[in-house]
Design a protein that fits this description.
Length: about 150
């Protein structure tokens, strides 16, 4: 395959919008009592698995490990419903992530459970964060940056 264009260099102002959004989530989830950095990283990794985004799976696995995530929680994420490793809040976030990524409607019961688990602001932020990782996955699948070279900061 031929080398693809560097999307970051071609449209830096557009990419800055996405980077600013990531910085916002980072700030919000570090400060939230209900929606934390661990849940956010698990959501990013699970959505990337669903979308089969190799670059993002590599990135978010490494980021999660650097944050102190246990390896079995990373390996088991594709079967999280059958694994005992995840909290109730993580399960609610992962369920919403799977629904939105698949384009499924969020029924009233799931909506209320998510709202009760995270509260108004964190639920909005979680929804936007799920949208953001889906967007990143789609961008990366078009431009295919090299997989395996990413190193967490």
């Amino acid at each position: 395959m031929s080398k693809r264009i560097n999307y970051i260099n071609i449209a830096p102002k557009a990419m800055d919008i996405l980077y600013t959004q990531e910085a916002y989530f980072h700030e919000q989830f570090r400060q939230s009592d209900t929606m934390n950095m661990t849940i956010w990283e698990l959501v990013k990794l699970r959505v990337s698995q669903i979308n089969q985004c190799a670059f993002c799976i590599d990135m978010h696995s490494k980021d999660a490990l650097k944050m102190g995530e246990r390896p079995e929680r990373i390996w088991g994420l594709s079967a999280w419903k059958d694994m005992p490793f995840y909290s109730d809040a993580e399960r609610v976030a992962l369920a919403l992530a799977e629904q939105l990524t698949a384009g499924q409607p969020v029924e009233d019961e799931a909506y209320q459970l998510t709202l009760n688990t995270f509260g108004d602001k964190a639920m909005v932020n979680l929804t936007l964060a799920i949208n953001a990782i889906n967007s990143w996955n789609r961008i990366v699948k078009v431009f295919k940056p090299a997989v395996g070279l990413y190193q967490p900061k």
